[in-house]
Amino acid sequence: MKDKRHTNALHLESVSHGYGNVEVLRDLNLVVERGEIVVLVGPSGCGKTTILNLLSGFLHPREGTVNKDGITRTVYQQDGLFPWLTVSENISMGLRSSANGNGHAKNASRAGNSEVNELIQLIRMEGFENHYPHELSGGMRQRVELARVLAGDSDILLMDEPFSALDYQSRLRMRRELILLLEKRPRTVVFVTHDIEEAAQLADRVLVLSNRPATICRELRIDASQPRRLSDPSVIGAMEETLKELGLNTPESHQA
Amino acid sequence: MKKADVLRLSLPVIVLFGALLLWSLISYFDLFPAYAFPSPGAVFVSFKEEIATGRLFNDVVASLWRVAVGFSISVLLGIPTGLWLGQHLMVRQSFVPMLNFFRFLSPLAWIPFAILWFHIGDKPAIFLIFMATFFPLTLATMVAVASIPSIYFRVARDYHYNGIQLLTKVTFPAALPQIITALRVSYGIAWVVIVAAEMVGCQDGLGYGIWEARNGLRLDSAVCYMIVIGLLGMGIDRLLAQLTKLPGIRWGYER
After folding, report:
1. Number of Cβ pairs closer than 8 Å across A and B?
2. Is the ipTM value over 0.90, yes or no?
3. Does A172 lie in the same domain as A91?
4. CA distance linking residue B81 with residue B247, whole number of Å
5. Theoretical Cys-Cys bridge with A53: which of A59, A65, B129, B166, CB 3.0 to 4.6 Å?
6. Same domain, B59 and B160
């Protein structure tokens, strides 16, 4: 799988979708390269989550094709962990492979344990292995979610506003955490958010979506190296561009 | 012990003694004829008699056995049925009206059938306990499954849970806290029904004891059996309540 580095991880080809009479996506084309972090921003209700659902295979498009090369996993806004499993049990779910629905084979379980321990160290949650999700703070739970999607053989992470239920400071910390984790375990990421600052700080590429039916109305490439400071000129520039595209940054308010 | 703990433990005892006192006063002043309103003393004497003859112990065992068997059959059939119904909208829509219909039939209505189908012995009582508990337990399990947040199934899909694994590792644990609540409620029903269930075809049991006391106009003995039924019911419910504290289940009660 890893020898196809040059190929695209995800490819949406003239995809249209809707619910009932409501047209949500119209003729959407989207290519995500392997290892890229693509962030989708747009007005609320514009179909960002629909795109993730199409990518995960939860929905099938009315028209067009969805091609993906690899295993996708989703991080949700909250409550994605199984509350009846401990932190380490939740993370070891990530080791279940598609080929082997019965979980990892017995001789692999030792390797699995060390993998889970390594991930727990990566998210700095040593000592919480046997805690249950309801005993953790919101930020800790999202860190466990990150560890779970990174465990095992996942290739593509779909992130549906994963930090938006957290307070501002936790959100800042989680962005940094995500970048550091991706440095150690590179993955292709499609990240949906309504937080423009978050988009500018994390993305290799920001895609600004239009109102329903959604199409991509602006594409911003951000080449600055990671991790980025909020005050980084490239971050500020990308934020201004995005705000302008969304009609939220008029020249008058900019001068004031 | 903290003051709050002392109060928490002592207040129920005070209330209990208040009730006993009220009971004593009513019988002391002969507000009701003694044969229709046994005094605490008379009940205490009959308690000693029932224990001395070994009858009470025998009745307790007989009743516990019948409830255990009837309730176990309910659990073994009701929970899988509820899991199945909860997962399939069409099946649910087809069966729910009928299940609801049976839920509202008092177990007393089944007594003639119990006698004709199962004659005498433990079987009619077990049948009545089953009929009283199967429907509420099945429906409650079904509702528990149907109300599992869909996010768990989407996560399960990402991690390749299918078929029987999806059922045992996702659906069942997700519904388990509510299923345990359903167990407690339906166990309560089973224990309440024991009095009615043992009115037919039995020669022993706590319900039979009350029935026999009525026939002999020995209300002191009836009260003695009532106290035992109440205490045992409470005790077993406390045991079932311990299940809610198990590690993989507690989350359901702490949100």
Report:
1. 53
2. no
3. no
4. 26
5. A59
6. yes
